Amino acid sequence: MNTISIVEVGSRRYRVRTGLTGSSKVPAIDSRATSHNPPSESKAKHGKSERISLNIPRQVHKYIIGARGSTLDKLRHESQAKITVPPERSRSDVVEIEGLLDERQKAEELITQIVADNMAKVPYTHFISLPLLDIDMQRKVGEFQRDAQRVLQNMDSSSFVHPGSLHITLGMLRLLSPKDVTRAVEFLRSLAKDVAEIVGTKPLLVSVGQLATMEAASQAKTIYANADDFDNSGRLRRLCAFVRDKFDSAGYIDEKRELKIHVSIVRAKPAHSSADEDDLAKKGSRGFSVNAGPLLKEFGSMSFGVCRVGQIQIARRFRHAENGAYENDGALSLL
Q: 260 in helix, strand or coil?
């Protein structure tokens, strides 16, 4: 089943079909002509050719090219325009289109549709995070992880989340250009007044504990701790739901799973895995799981303490500071 999205390309707007399982937010594609004085439509139709540049995230260029260039050949044939996609090694986002006005417009429409159809295949780059930076909590998690290693067999040590990177995820983001990142940070900060009303004047204290698994305990891939308000005020859930809903409504989030407020402690990976975090995120764990039953029986009721939440961040995936915390491109203070 498909839905219709409006995508801006330069000064024009196009209606494109996007699958409901795909991204609800397609980056605006910036279109620039090489001439400062573009010809009128009547002149263009009489043979005036012009070249324009489209700023399209390079992460989707491979879908414009297709297998052995098949999609690009089809685009050129259907639009009759000359389309140039930069080589991957150039790390350029600029796709050039040359031709008559109607040829350029047709090429832009076709390319925009391809971007919309394939955006959901591009890995997420950022996430909305509530970092948990309490040193005592991080120490307790580290101690638990050392105990857990003797219980969980045949699992790589990298399965244990670095205590410095503990956080609550509110939603995954696909920000493919500096402009996308800036807009997301600005949007987060635009919520400041409403967020302040939810949090109020008291510190937002979060208690973390009570271990559980995302899957059946006998086939666990993710082991997490529950997170809730220390004072049972409900502010944490209201805050998380509000921020996620706002980003969802603005088209930044395309996940269909419901918000689950938790702190991941273990993400199971097979022993002796040489894959880094980025590679594992792309390829998956190939069905690897562990029997977490004995671990939950021994440590299931464990508490990791209470942490004051001080920020909402637009955090970068796979990028960590020296202390293990995720790097971020901008934040909204809760203090």
A: coil
Extract the tokens encoding 16: 């494109």
The CA radius of gyration of the chain, in Å to the nearest whole number, is: 24
Residues 119 and 15: their CA atoms lie apart, in Å, by 16
Structure-block tokens of residue 17: 């079909």
pLDDT digits 0-9 by tens, 97-150: 999 999 999 999 999 999 999 998 999 999 999 999 999 999 999 999 999 988
**CA gap 308, 324 in Å, rounded:** 18
What's the rounded Cα separation, in Å, for the pair 192 and 198?
Answer: 10
Amino acid present at 307: C
What distance in Å separates the CA atoms of residue 105 and residue 94, rounded to the nearest whole number?
17
Could you read off the pLDDT of 218-239 as tens digits, one per residue?
Answer: 999 999 999 999 999 999 999 9
Beta bridge partners of residue 5, listed in sequence order: 16
The pairs formed by 225-232 with CB atoms below 8 angstroms and a separation of 24 or more are 225/262, 225/263, 225/265, 225/302, 225/304, 226/261, 226/262, 226/263, 227/168, 227/261, 227/262, 227/263, 228/261, 229/204, 229/205, 230/205, 230/206, 230/306, 231/202, 231/205
Q: How far is residue 240's CA from residue 252's CA, in Å, rounded to a whole number?
A: 15
The predicted model scores a pTM of 0.79
Name residue 14's amino acid: Y
Tokens of 200: 């109020």
* Interacting residues of 87 by C-beta distance below 8 A, sequence separation 6+: none
> Exposed, middle or buried, 276 (CB in 10 Å: 0-12/13-18/19+)?
exposed
Helix and strand totals (H; E) in the chain: 10, 14
Number of Cβ within a 10 Å radius of residue 105 = 19
Q: Using an 8 Å Cβ cutoff, are 245 and 187 in contact?
A: no
